[in-house]
Structure formats: structure tokens, C-alpha cells
Amino acid sequence: MNIRAAGILLLAALLPSGQGQDIWRHVTEHGDLRYADRPFAGAAPVALPEPSGWTGPMAPAPATEARDTPPPDAAHAGPPSLELLRPTEQETVRGAGGELKVLLGGDFEKQSGHRLLLELDGAEAEWMGEPPEVVLNNVWRGEHRLRARLLDEQGRERASSREVVFYKREPSLAEAPSGLR
User: Fold this and answer.
1) d(CA 73, CA 81)
2) pTM, rounded to two decimals
3) Dihedral, CA atoms, 120, 124, 127, 132, nearest 10 degrees?
4) What confidence tens digit (pLDDT) does each residue in 53-82 have?
5) Which homologous superfamily is 79-169 in?
6) What sign for the dihedral angle of Cα 152, 156, 157, 163?
7) Which residues fall within 8 angstroms of residue 172, CB to CB, at 6 or more apart?
8) What is the SS3 assignment for 166?
């Protein structure tokens, strides 16, 4: 397509004055495209998409008593969700002693018989603390993969986070204070 034809088509599509007008297209015997705002021999009309535009923000819906007061079981209405907030994807976590602090988020409530499972590098990891913040031990230097899962009493998965790849950095002896060498 030559530049002139592309320019005409672009102007026809963008200019407000072009709205509601017809555009005509013709392919010459040499394969060149010609566009015009009037019909000519061998030209066919071009169907242009409807113009779109932003109409501004919508006015907020009027508050109603039913909308302002959630139902008693609104927190349990949908399926639970679970996500890892810390460590983040590709984060380098610094620390000593193999300890890793994990922050969980989402809309989950551990019910009787449910079990929160943290998988570190594909294996179940032992953790301490109370969600949303728990601590894993024995997470040493290197690349690791972490995922959280919420299982029901039958071991079925109720919620799962996406797997996060992170890097653990431990101080080396060369970095340790002189009194610890």
C-alpha cells in the first residue's frame, strides 16, 4: 500500500468530519490501492467501524440499603482465593540462618479440617506462625520455587496461588563481621 493511500484511509477513519461519509476503494491493475471520498469507476465502498469515544466517568449508582449492607455470609459467597504477596516473582531475599518470611493474601479462611500447604521446590515445607505471615526454615542460598495451596478435609484443592520463583541470598564467611569468622 502506498503512503498516500494509507494517509487518506487514516484521515478518513480519524477525522470527525469524516463520520457518516462513505469511503471508496479501488485496486488498480498494478495492485496499488486507491481511496477516495467519492465513488469512481471500479471503486467499491469500504465498511468502516463505528466511531467510538469516551463519554466520561459514569455517575455512581445511588446507594441502597441492600447494597450497603453485605449479606451475613458475603465473605464466603465466592470461592476462596490465595496469593503469595512476599516473596515476589524474581525477588532476591536476603537473610541469614535459612529463614524466609512468607506473606499470604487473598480471600481465604481456614475452616475446620482445611489445611494450608506451602510447597517449596515441589515439596511440602514446614512453616511456623499464623497466616497471613508465616516463616519457613531451611531455605538456603539459591533459586527457589514457592506455591501456597488450601486443601479441604478430603485433600481436594480449594485455592492455590501461582508459583513464584525467587532467589535466596545468605551472607558468606567473607561478608561476616570479623567476630564471627
Assistant:
1) 16
2) 0.53
3) 70
4) 555 555 565 655 544 454 454 445 567 889
5) Immunoglobulins (2.60.40.10)
6) positive
7) none
8) strand
